[in-house]
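Table 4 source record.
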Amino acid sequence: MKCEYCIVAHTAMAKKAGASQEEIKTAIMVAGVVSLNSTVMYGNQYNQEKWRKMFQ
């Protein structure tokens, strides 16, 4: 997620597809939040079965 080559390429492709700067910033923010939450859950070894039950 933090590869400067990927960021340059994906930003260019998003702009070519018509994404606004605001949409690109939002996508970056969402990616950061997903990464943060994944790291916190994995790092704290949160019980996956307990997690799954919360969404049934």
